[in-house]
Automatic annotation (TrEMBL), chain A:
<dbReference type="Pfam" id="PF08402">
    <property type="entry name" value="TOBE_2"/>
</dbReference>
<dbReference type="InterPro" id="IPR003439">
    <property type="entry name" value="ABC_transporter-like_ATP-bd"/>
</dbReference>
<dbReference type="GO" id="GO:0005524">
    <property type="term" value="F:ATP binding"/>
</dbReference>
<keyword id="KW-1003">Cell membrane</keyword>
<keyword id="KW-0472">Membrane</keyword>
<dbReference type="GO" id="GO:0022857">
    <property type="term" value="F:transmembrane transporter activity"/>
</dbReference>
<dbReference type="GO" id="GO:0016887">
    <property type="term" value="F:ATP hydrolysis activity"/>
</dbReference>
<dbReference type="InterPro" id="IPR050093">
    <property type="entry name" value="ABC_SmlMolc_Importer"/>
</dbReference>
<dbReference type="InterPro" id="IPR003593">
    <property type="entry name" value="AAA+_ATPase"/>
</dbReference>
From TrEMBL, chain B:
<comment type="similarity">
    <text>Belongs to the binding-protein-dependent transport system permease family. CysTW subfamily.</text>
</comment>
<dbReference type="GO" id="GO:0055085">
    <property type="term" value="P:transmembrane transport"/>
</dbReference>
<dbReference type="InterPro" id="IPR000515">
    <property type="entry name" value="MetI-like"/>
</dbReference>
<feature type="transmembrane region" description="Helical">
    <location>
        <begin position="189"/>
        <end position="215"/>
    </location>
</feature>
<dbReference type="InterPro" id="IPR035906">
    <property type="entry name" value="MetI-like_sf"/>
</dbReference>
<keyword id="KW-0812">Transmembrane</keyword>
<keyword id="KW-1133">Transmembrane helix</keyword>
<feature type="domain" description="ABC transmembrane type-1">
    <location>
        <begin position="61"/>
        <end position="267"/>
    </location>
</feature>
<keyword id="KW-0472">Membrane</keyword>
Length: 333, 278
């Protein structure tokens, strides 16, 4: 085992007809990390994942897995396994046969396959469901069968295509933590594709934000959120006020929660006066849209710490906004 | 509303059950060439006894089953790759290819079988071609042999194999094949463990749609086969039209029906099981 990155993508591009899906991507994914490819639909994240799995061939560039060039290596000879968005469980096989499929391809003895299938099913809490058909399972159970099937060969790298998209919201939150726990326990590298920034931020150790076939920024969730490099990233991850600075020659991204509301002119580095025009109450926090005297508007977010705040901010209220000198991030592009 | 539901039953009763009851009654009668129709009704088992004791009928039964089974296997071997190719073709091309499979139905079945006679005769188009090109100097005649019967049945019933197999393959989710490849299955293994089992209902439907009518086939063995080709459909025809033995012909028809109910029931059960699974 070499010490370099587990996946190394160099100058990879892919087009379908006239549509450019991936447009020159360079990316290294380190051993043992949970890496997320994040972006809207059509940004090329799924194509990139499918090129790692071997289902698509790059037009140019190379994909290296564990230092080995994967050019010309078909999917069934790659040391990776994938969990499909639709799960792709074999409907004519029961759960145990689905999970054991990969081991049967290796020609292992039946007793060892049975033992490892049993372990894998226990790991995803489906120990007594081996004889069921996929059609007899709930969505959450199917997702766990797909996970067990993809993990049973102990791949160097597990690819997850929108692993939580088909689950309902409550189940999704619990499953997030379960996936992270499993990844840490097994010490594997996970690469997941998601369009859900909350999912990527809460699960991934590092993530790549993709846009129009290119990688807009790579970093930890904290880096990407607090130090967005471009207007696209600042806008895509969370909410950002984009303000002109230096007389309109550069832009500053200012997160709504970095701005505070005051009744009187505060002593912060920056202070602006404005009028509340809209309030979105979200329970744990409220989002205010404040019109400034120069005609522009700023979004301000405050945590609702007290159940009965002494100073509620009603609509139409004249307020002062204040933020520190280092509250915003200067954008490079 | 009730009438609409009753109509198909009425149709079945008038045009299937009633004639079937007539055939059943005649099968238990005795042949009488002087009567009109040439039968004395009764409860005689003479016709059935003859069917199970006379070697001619036994040979005809076995001949029918053997030819139908072999033709079904040939149809499957030829039809499966065709259906597979159509299902894997560009979506825009598929209707055209399917149309090509169905196109022969636009011409009368009888005329198409006669066309084969013209092709396979001793100085037919095939042999003329073989002689003219010098490939074979003294070609034998295919017409009048069992080969011609197989050829005719495979030609005539191929669409009944292609269409149900295509329907099964077209439904196949391609991500299942990707999942198989991802788990280490080569394309051949993925075909054997995923595509083939998933298309099994289509294969079964196609085999029965070819086998059942092929067993009772009369036109093809009569026109393309020789005197050596013994099939039960031809025996039935001969008893009825040449010997005017209506009771014996009816007994053959009843036996044929009973024989084919088995595979049809099997097919129905499989279909019901598939529905249940989905």
């Amino acid at each position: 085992m070499s010490a370099g990155p587990i996946v190394s993508i160099a100058g990879v591009a892919k087009r379908f007809g006239t549509v450019v899906a991936v447009d020159g991507v360079d990316l290294d994914i380190q051993r043992g990390e949970l890496f997320a490819l994040l972006g809207g639909s059509g940004c090329g994240k799924t194509t990139l994942l499918r090129m790692i799995a071997g289902f698509e061939t790059p037009d140019t560039g190379h994909v290296l897995i564990d230092g080995q060039d994967m050019t010309g290596v078909p999917p069934h000879r790659r040391p990776v396994n994938m969990m499909f968005q639709s799960y792709a469980l074999f409907p004519h096989m029961d759960v145990a046969a689905n999970v054991g499929y990969g081991l049967r391809r290796e020609g292992l003895p039946a007793s060892e396959i049975a033992r490892r299938v049993g372990e894998a099913l226990d790991q995803v809490r489906l120990g007594d469901h081996g004889k069921r058909r996929p059609a007899q399972l709930s969505g959450g159970q199917r997702q766990r069968v797909a996970l067990a099937r993809a993990l049973i060969k102990r791949p160097k790298l597990l690819l997850l295509d929108e692993p939580l998209a088909a689950l309902d919201r409550k189940l999704r939150e619990g499953t997030r933590f379960e996936l992270v726990r499993l990844q840490e326990q097994l010490g594997l590298t996970f690469v997941m594709v998601t369009h859900d920034q909350e999912e990527a931020m809460s699960m991934a150790g590092r993530l790549a934000v993709m846009n129009e076939g290119r990688i807009a920024q790579v970093g930890t969730p904290h880096e990407v959120y607090e130090h967005p490099r471009s207007r696209f990233v600042a806008d895509f991850i969370g909410i950002a006020n984009i303000l002109p600075v230096d007389g309109g020659r550069a832009w500053l991204a200012l997160r709504p929660e970095k701005i505070a509301l005051f009744a009187a002119r505060p002593s912060t580095d920056h202070a602006e006066q404005g009028c509340i025009v809209e309030i979105a109450y979200e329970g744990d926090r409220s989002l205010y849209r404040v019109a400034l005297t120069d005609g522009s508007t700023l979004l301000v977010s405050t945590a609702n710490i007290a159940r009965h705040p002494r100073e509620p901010w009603p609509r139409g209220q004249q307020v002062w906004l204040g933020w520190a000198a280092d509250a915003g991030q200067r954008l490079e592009e | 509303m009730r009438l609409v539901i009753a109509l198909p039953y009425l149709w079945l009763a008038t045009f299937f059950l009633l004639p079937f009851a007539l055939v059943l009654a005649i099968a238990f009668g005795v042949n009488n060439p002087d009567a009109v129709p040439p039968v004395d009704l009764g409860v005689s088992l003479k016709n059935f006894r003859l069917l199970f004791t006379d070697d001619l009928y036994l040979a005809a039964w076995l001949g029918s089953l053997r030819i139908a089974a072999a033709s079904t296997v040939l149809c499957l071997l030829l039809g499966y790759p065709m259906a597979y190719a159509i299902a894997r073709a560009r979506p825009g091309l598929r209707p055209l290819l399917l149309m090509a499979v169905i196109l022969p139905f636009w011409t009368s079945f009888l005329i198409r079988v006669y066309a084969w006679m013209g092709l396979l005769a001793s100085n037919g188009i095939l042999n003329q071609f073989l002689r003219a090109t010098g490939l074979v100097d003294n070609p034998g005649t295919i017409l009048g042999t069992e080969w011609a019967v197989h050829l005719g049945i495979v030609y005539a019933y191929l669409p009944f194999m292609v269409l149900p197999v295509y329907a099964a393959l077209e439904k196949l989710d391609t991500s299942l094949l990707e999942a198989a490849a991802d788990l280490g299955a080569s394309p051949l293994v993925a075909f054997l463990t995923v595509t083939l089992p998933q298309s099994l209902p289509g294969i079964l439907a196609g085999c029965l749609l070819v086998f059942i009518p092929a067993v009772g086939e009369f036109v093809i063995p009569d026109l393309l086969g020789g005197t050596g080709t013994l099939m039960i459909g031809k025996v039935l025809w001969d008893e009825f039209f040449l010997n005017s033995d209506w009771p014996l012909a009816s007994a053959v028809a009843i036996c044929l029906l009973v024989l084919l109910v088995g595979p049809i029931a099997l097919f129905q059960r499989q279909q019901a099981k598939n529905l249940e699974r989905q």
